[in-house]
Design brief:
By secondary structure, this protein is an alpha/beta fold. Helix 2 crosses helix 3. The chain starts with 6 loop residues before the first helix and ends with a helix.
Amino acid sequence: MNKKMTREDIRRFYTQASIWWGDDPQESGTHMKRVELLHRLCGRGPWKILELGCASGHSAAAMADYGHDVTGVEFNPVDYKSATKLLNQTRKGKLTFIHEDFYKVNFLERFDIILCWQVFGLEDDDQQRLLLHAWIRNG
């Protein structure tokens, strides 16, 4: 039996995984490598960035440290709570976290760059195009 995971299955998985893995399970240097990749591919900006499935927010915070305005969306309550602790530090750019499913959140604003590092949920090209079309700035 090959059952497709529901949004609720995914939320439960990531919530439990966050409890197991702790506040920041990424390998040392991961967040800085993501900032370097962003700068190599897109230039130094500053950029207005949307990060889908931002987990505990450490990559978003690293980008804000470099002067980018970053909005992270996370629907796992454990990670979201961890991410909000990062809001207490002074950064060169603006850092915002939203506790919501990125399929349900609605933005009036547009972003220069949309990032999604490691998530379940962007299952096909049509879903990716829908999200990108809705939130990416046009030229």
